[in-house]
Please model this.
Amino acid sequence: RKYPEMNYLAYFQAYTNTYAPLDFLEKVYREALAHPKIAALAIATRPDCLPSGVLELLSDLNRRKPVWVELGLQTINEETAAFIRRGYPLSVFHEAVKSLHDRNLEIIVHLILGLPGETKEMMLQTVKEIGKLDIQALKIHMLYVIKNTKLYQLYLNNGFEMLSREDYIDLVTEQLSYLPDNIIIERLTGDGNVDDLIAPLWSIKKVTILNDIDKLMVAKNYYQGCNINPK
Model:
């Protein structure tokens, strides 16, 4: 109601949205794109779930309306990836990026900050490497501990250090300074389900986190030379 002239993005968000029979994927994708108010299609998936048939389907759909593919990378560190059971090596991610790029598909990468065992230097290195790739956008998330998960059990039994609010804001701000201006930042933080969230509880106040990232960007003069108006 607030923006009656606005069009919409059909976002297949939760889980792995290319992990299904090809005919089923084609049916739901085309049904979404057929709506006149849908301007583009966004598909969240895994780099190891992009077989050739799916890639060709996405390429065909991209000729009708823009198709964005979101890849859950989380970290470039192979040890961390094995620990969180990501399920694929870094080489598979790079192969997926090349395959999508070759078909002129928009690429959005997801990162998680604060994974167990990761240092600030490791998280900065992940962003530096991402900045070298031909991707179009980035989504940055913090690590959540949610009830009734393997991570929750680890947190209870062994414990691991979570990023503080101040550390997260400082880290994100520094990461942004390493990225080229052409990469769109689609997310700087998130907010987990309050009923299931164990930590970090400070993440609930999402708007204040975004405001403080903005303030630190201004204070460190990171906006200078960027095509961004911080206000």
Observations:
- The beta strands are 8-12, 38-45, 67-74, 106-113, 137-142, 145-146, 184-187, 197-199.
- The mean pLDDT is 93.
- Helices lie at 22-34, 52-62, 78-83, 90-102, 120-130, 150-157, 165-177, 206-219.
- The chain has eight helices and eight strands.
